[in-house]
Amino acid sequence: MTFSDPDASGAVALAGKKKQAAPGVSERTLARAQRRHRHDQGTTSMSNTSLTPDQLEAQIELQREQLADTVDQLARKLDVKAQAKARLQSARYQLRPEAVAAFVGAAILVGGLVWWRRSR
Description:
By secondary structure, this protein is an all-alpha fold. 70% of the residues lie in helices and 0% in strands.
């Protein structure tokens, strides 16, 4: 269920303005935030008094769930130690083609040397 009142939020007036990225924020992050803002634009309005208490509660609960998901995503993204551990775990069980080729080459070389030594 969505409710729109873009004039009350002032979103229509700000939609055409290009924002500058804050220090430390990449242009890609800013663009993503602006797209998300345009997508969410007008879906909620704090000044819309025609909502029933049940609708307001449902809307608040939905926003809480979205906020909790966002916080969880940010926590996972900022947990460098867990990311490094996961990357190490996946690399541990993954055979790289270069390593396999080096092992096969070394085995052939050792086998050839053993055969040559015994044939002399």
